[in-house]
Write a structure and sequence with these properties.
The chain has 210 residues and is α+β, with helices and mostly antiparallel strands. Helices cover 20% and strands 12% of the residues. The protein is globular.
Length: 210
């Protein structure tokens, strides 16, 4: 019987996938510019931050393929696991939470200095605490839809707002294949409830319920 290790019990790096800076000078390479920080506070997002190199991407892709199998020995450690959460029977939307408990790569991703430095800056140079991870996986040509939504509406536990989402792609995301879109300045408009979706001309649309 294979022993299952819950990596949630490990509060440090468990692999060498993400090298940690050891000097202030080494941390400098990960710092956002003042313009990037200002853009985040003005528009509610900042993009174009390189978080992973090709080796790290390939490791995470391999781990993802392994743990997508419901027969994976550590499957019970997922907080949520939906092989297909799409409401359209012709599309697929894999959705799960809890990868960091299962594989070394997804666990150590939380210590990625390119993320922790940026997150700290965007939260006012405060310490960063992890809330949860989440994976959406949509196969090419028949991927499912994730409705328009406001992440903070699920997390209304800190006032003033002290949460942020870090979206990281393991594949190239373009307007042609379905990239992520943001509603500018949405964080300045108050909290919205969950959004519904509809389809028109093959596209998904969402409407916020204030």
């Amino acid at each position: 019987m294979q022993l299952v290790k819950d990596l949630a019990d490990r509060h440090e790096l468990v692999s060498d996938l993400f090298k940690q800076p050891s000097t202030p000078e080494e941390w400098e390479q990960y710092k956002l510019s003042d313009e990037q920080v200002a853009h985040f506070h003005e528009y509610g997002y900042v993009s174009g931050i390189k978080l992973l190199d090709e080796t790290q991407i390939e490791v995470l892709r391999k781990e993802l393929e392994e743990i997508r199998d419901p027969k994976h020995p550590a499957h019970e450690l997922f907080y949520e696991f939906h092989g297909n959460q799409s409401t359209d029977p012709n599309t697929v939307l894999f959705h799960s939470l809890g990868h960091w408990r299962i594989t070394e790569g997804f666990h150590d991703l939380l210590w990625n200095p390119a993320f922790t430095m940026a997150a700290s800056q965007l939260l006012g140079n405060n310490n960063v605490r992890f809330w949860h991870d989440q994976m959406f996986c949509k196969p090419s040509n028949h991927g499912g839809v994730v409705a328009w939504h406001q992440d903070y509406s699920f997390w209304i536990r800190t006032v003033p707002m002290q949460h942020l989402t870090c979206w990281t792609g393991l594949d190239d995301a373009t307007t042609e294949n379905g990239c992520l879109y943001y509603v500018l300045r949405k964080s300045q408009m108050g909290t919205s409830t969950k959004a519904g979706t509809s389809r028109k001309n093959g596209r998904a649309y969402g409407v916020y319920d204030r």
